[in-house]
């Protein structure tokens, strides 16, 4: 029997994402899109006054807007179970991921966290230990696996329709950092190119981790070796803004990963092509509702999002509108919150094993992403052709 305590909206708190922050607003829209989650509290800035202003603009009660995430955890923990937040969404820069996530877990709160998961691999491993210890739910927002056609691609590959996978190309070119934007007041550029806030990697940490996760998510394969070359093209920039990586996977397949933020003229052109013995598939984030499948001895096939019978139940579960009504980034983000919310509602209600809730990226994906960055940097600095992928 489902506990009546979850016959309500799930209560979300937020750390970061105050006025003027890009990703915080995206999270709030995504979390509330299905009417299953409500924002009840937040510590929206390290500046208490700015946090207060942000809370006021979101019409939150004054006593549920906090001046720091430490205060937020302490005060929320004191509230009765029927009032306190169920989980916290952390939407801060990389260097403010680990501490609030650990504090949330220590206080019994489930966690949603932006990627890359932490500032470095050591923090990532500690966070995984705490998640495993507490048994609390943890969502890492690798947004692109929330698209229905990414789920359809994974289903085709996992069912063996393409045969044994041999080749994977994944590319993520952007052009928004083609100039020295961090010196012209662009806050998004400033923290992403600052090693004290972003960590050891720039471009690869920001978007290369997405590319690798997408390749491994669809294929079900794991990278075993890589060979990386990183570049910093904009004079004065402290972290890399471009890179190319050769990949080897655990089934013998080879791959190429390209990530760049100085590809002038590009917007957000994440794209993946994957080839097996019998055919290949192609998906582009800028045309997300289409999946192209190319067969060796048959005409090409086009899958379209929209809930039709031709796509898998997992892909249909992420479709919200009829065929021909475009869905995009916000809906993909919302699909991750929908999956997380479904799993959380199940957990809070004491019911286990609900197979109708699609999976979502976890703390394990976060550890793998941070390990990827360490291996990429080690390979880039080495004279060896190949670097074993270690975690």
Strand proportion, as a percent range, falls in 15-25%
* Widest β-sheet, arrangement of strands: 13-12-11-10-6-9-8-7-14
Arithmetic mean pLDDT: 94
Characterize the main sheet.
9 strands, mixed
Order of helices and strands: EHEHHEHEHEHEHHHEEEEEEEHHHE
Instruction: Report the structural category.
Output: alpha/beta
Number of helices: 12
Shape type: globular
Spans of at least 5 consecutive residues whose pLDDT stays below 50 are none
What radius of gyration results from the CA coordinates? 21 Å
How far apart lie the N and C ends? 41 Å
Helical percent range? 25-40%
Annotation, overall tally of beta strands: 14
Short description:
This protein is an alpha/beta fold and 391 residues long. The chain has helices spanning 22-32, 48-57, 69-78, 98-106, 121-134, 148-158, 187-192, 195-198, 203-219, 313-316, 329-348, 363-381, and strands spanning 10-16, 37-43, 87-91, 110-113, 138-140, 165-173, 223-231, 242-249, 254-260, 271-276, 279-284, 290-295, 301-304, 387-388.
